[in-house]
Amino acid sequence: MKKQSKIRILLRMIKLVKPLTGYMLLAIMFGTVGFLAAQFIPIMGGKGILSGLGIGKELEWYKILLILLGLALTRAVFRLSEQRMNHYIAFTLLAIIRDKVFKALRRLCPAKLEGRDKGDMISLITSDVELLEVFYAHTISPICIAIITETIMCLFIGSYHPILGVVAFFAFVTIGIMLPIIISKRSGDLGDNLRAGSGELSAHMLESIRGVDETLQYNAGSKRLEEINKKTTALSEKQSILSKLTGTNIALANTFILLFDVIMLLISGYLYIRGIVGFDGFIIPMIALMSSFGPVTALSALGTTLQSTIASGARVLAVIDEKPETEDIAGEENVEFTGANVRGVSFSYPATNSKVLNDVSLNIARGSIIGIVGKSGCGKSTLLKLLMRFWKVEEGAMEISDTNVEKINTDNLRDMESYMTQETRLFKDTIANNIRIAKLDASDEEVIEACKKASIHDFIMTLPNGYDTPVGELGDTLSGGERQRIGLARAFLHNAPFMLLDEPTSNLDSLNEAVILKSLYEYSEDKTIVLVSHRQSTVRVADKTLSMSSGSMV
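User: That's the sequence. What structure does it adopt?
Assistant: Structure tokens below.
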């Protein structure tokens, strides 16, 4: 995907605020009033002192106290309101963004997610999305607030003399605009590299946790630890550079604040000495400038704080924008399953140049059991994925009921097909709920019947809690064969007329394999089955057995 500029990423992130525009305007209003109240507290104090000295407009002391108290209360109430509003906007938008990300992952799955680092995906879904809170809670409204408040302060200071207003203008522009731009350019792609490194470290840690048994078994812990330390050190170095830039940014901001305070002192002093302004024109602009750097100081930090946020936004938007390999189809007339045909299909994965399937043709009659055998990597599993329409064929056509799968509603296609993969994925839930994923409204009796067909019921009943027994994370409390039979139970429960079984007995011993094959044969009266395996024994129940080699039928 083409890399987007930082400005474009920011504009797209701002566009997401559209549904909450009203709340954002309220946050800006609250923040503006709150900052103005804070800035005018020292100004009113200065006016009170001048009034006590008989300089300028005379003000009664109790009125000044009431005004100061009112300004303080206004500052507290409106600052709190602004913060609550900004965080409401931020966390609401994070929920919306997470929804968009999960919908995107649903569209991209499974083709575009094959081979992607799971740890990197977890980092994107969690920490990258979470970092966007900084942008929505502490960036958009503060920028607008700074523009409005500092414009008002420039006009207020300029009311004493135009040149003083110009000095204030250059002070605010330098600290709030020029400084963040300079620091941002100095940081370059550091934010992108930092987020990418964080994703790589998360992926490596997840891989290390999952493979801890093998690491201990082969005494590879020191090597694994060395790799983790290397990635951690590289990430720390990037973070250190960003922290140094942040420190430099703060130092420069404070230096410019002091510099412009001195410039304001010298110019207003010169104007006073020349009699162009009164003593209040010398003191009040000084106080006003010193008290009004708050909004632009917050902006000055954006040169570094936004780097990681923009990088996270780019990663999130890249997932949302990514085009799926196959779009869901809707609006076509539903079809009933009457058989399937593979007509001259050729296919290769995007990451490879060699063809996985080469001019494959196959007729799958309704009610038949077709066995396909061949060595690993010959294209058997890919053939089933194309029948499921996870990928698009390059040449030829996949047909269900004499209809190209590209013309069949996705929901209709999924209803007609039960697909069992080589590796059964289990969720951290009960056995019953893991099986019921194939049919969410299935009754307990239906679940039990499916398990009996998969020859797993008797085992489940030996467990302390039966079907309510948790399977652990990724099903780690079950053996490979038990997980595989649960996957087969799902296929039976789905009760589709067309069953695609990819190595359904690869983790079973000969006895259990025979039981499963017997069950498949007995319950295949109204089913059409494509049975893929690298073992001849698995396909002995097939009506017809075909062999594959190097992507072709032989």
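The CA atoms of residues 369 and 543 lie 5 Å apart.
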